[in-house]
Amino acid sequence: MAQVAILREEISIPEGLEVAINDEVAVTGSKGELRRKFKSRNIKIMKENEKIILEAPFPKKRDKAMLGTIKSHINNMIIGLTDGFSYKMKIVYAHFPMTVKAAGNKVTIENFLGERHPRTAKIVGDTNVQIKGDEVTVEGINKEEVGQTMANIEQATKIKGRDPRVFQDGIYLVSKK
Q1: Which helix (H) or strand (E) holds 144?
Q2: Is the pLDDT of residue 50 over 80?
Q3: Taking a C-beta distance cutoff of 8 angstroms, is the pair 85, 146 a contact?
Q4: Which of 9, 35, 119, 132 has the fewest CB atoms found within 10 Å of its own CB?
Q5: Three-state DSSP class for residue 55
Q6: Arithmetic mean of pLDDT over the chain
């Protein structure tokens, strides 16, 4: 099987976004700024015209995989600054009505399964958490921070030591956007 001399990927930059490439990739838009360092010896990141170009000369299997990963991360940065990420969650309880509050960088869940001590979940980075009735909305521009915050809330209401078919109380992901 012949090896490709240079593997090249292009990402177009939408209008309204600015990209700066030094030792890190910085994408700036109306919603804010995202920065990320990519450590890969064989992959070069450049900006030409209105495109980000990723090149890997004489790529090995690992370089091909890394190229796709870096491309996905940069695409997620662009999507975050143009549209943003929004996860909707639902508060479900059958036995004890729980109260959920977001304050500072924590989400507090009180009266979960009748427990006396509140459970907490950390809000990561600049993520915004809004609670209206039995719906929790987690929004932000960084996909990893929004996803980790959503996972922290879901894991805070994980039930241990009881039958999950009977005790279905918790806060669960309903939709992603």
Answers
A1: helix 143-156
A2: yes
A3: yes
A4: 132
A5: strand
A6: 94
pLDDT digits (tens, 9 = 90+) for 119-154: 999 999 999 999 999 999 999 999 999 999 999 999
- Among the residue ranges 67-76, 130-139, 160-169, the one predicted with the least confidence is 160-169
Distance CA 81, CA 77 (A): 6
Distance CA 108, CA 8 (A): 47
Q: Which residues face 19 on adjacent strands?
A: 27
Q: Do strands 32-36 and 25-29 pair parallel, antiparallel, or not at all (unpaired)?
A: antiparallel
What domain range is 165 assigned to?
Answer: 85-176
Q: For residues 98 and 74, state if they share a domain.
A: no
Residue 146 has phi, psi (to 5 degrees) of: -65, -45
Spell 132-156 as b/e; 16+ CB within 10 A means b.
eeeebebbbbbbbbbbbbbebbbeb
Residues 139, 76, single domain; the answer is no
